[in-house]
Write a structure and sequence with these properties.
The chain is mainly α and about 200 residues long. It has one domain (about 5-200). It is about 60% helix and about 0% strand. The chain has ten helices and two strands; from the N terminus they run H-H-H-H-H-H-H-E-E-H-H-H. The protein has helices at about 5-20, 25-40, 45-55, 70-80, 85-90, 110-125, 130-135, 150-160, 165-185, 195-200, and strands at about 140, 145. Strands 1-2 form a two-stranded antiparallel sheet. A hairpin with a 2-residue loop joins strand 1 (about 140) and strand 2 (about 145). About 40% of the residues are buried. The structure holds fe (ii) ion. Fe (ii) ion binds near residues 27, 31, 57, 58 and 137. Fe (ii) ion binds near residues 27 and 57.
Length: about 200
């Protein structure tokens, strides 16, 4: 697989955090830890690969404040390094429904770049890693892992709903069911800090 080591991935993220600090950095760390935890209980996934993909899924934010352009920038950054197996995650993570119109945010890239993303999504069959990072993106608040419903509401409160909101939510629940089945238990049984992340309280309280 063409992916960086966890140490390289962490260095890319820290460099990006200096270039463009923000809650997205902690969100990336939380998504990576969620992906690693789920992969560790999955019969076909490598926790180290899952962790790297989680760390780098939003790496396009290194280029500065942007909306959907970050998926194109992340792909370009990793594609240029020959790391296509994680570059793809930068594109696929935002699209459980593989349609550029389903994006939660605004398209602030060129029409040609948006067309490139649609062509890529249309030609791509999602792997379990694509779906894992889509899932973990939807579980990761900057403060920690939380119930997916909480994060989905958080995104719609920030960006507003669109015509694809219900289809996307259903796609996320389908992915959750897939991973629940693969793990033989709820994903929430293996996610770190889920009670605190969801309810903001110490699990012992
Ligand atoms: Fe993300």
């Amino acid at each position: 697989m063409q992916i960086p080591t966890p140490e390289q991935a962490w260095a890319y993220l820290m460099d990006a955090a200096e270039r463009n600090p923000g809650p997205w950095v902690e969100h990336s760390r939380v998504a990576a830890e969620a992906a690693r935890a789920i992969a560790a209980h999955h019969p076909a996934l490598d926790p180290k690969v899952a962790y790297v993909m989680g760390l780098l899924h939003d790496i396009g934010r290194r280029e500065g404040r942007s909306d959907m352009r970050h998926v194109v920038d992340g792909y370009a950054f990793l594609h240029d390094k020959g790391m296509d197996d994680v570059a793809r995650i930068c594109l696929t993570h935002s699209f459980p429904v593989p349609d550029v119109r389903a994006a939660a945010g605004q398209w602030d890239s060129s029409a040609a770049e948006r067309g490139f993303v649609q062509d890529y999504l249309s030609a791509t069959e999602y792997t379990a890693y694509d779906r894992l990072i889509q899932l973990c993106d939807a579980l990761a608040l900057p403060s920690g892992c939380c119930l997916m419903e909480k994060r989905l509401v958080d995104v719609v409160l920030r960006y507003g709903p669109n015509d694809f909101t219900v289809a996307k939510w259903n796609a996320f629940f389908d992915i959750q069911r897939e991973f629940d089945q693969a793990l033989g238990r709820s994903i929430y049984c293996v996610l770190p800090g889920i009670v605190q992340g969801t309810f903001g309280c110490d699990p012992r309280c």
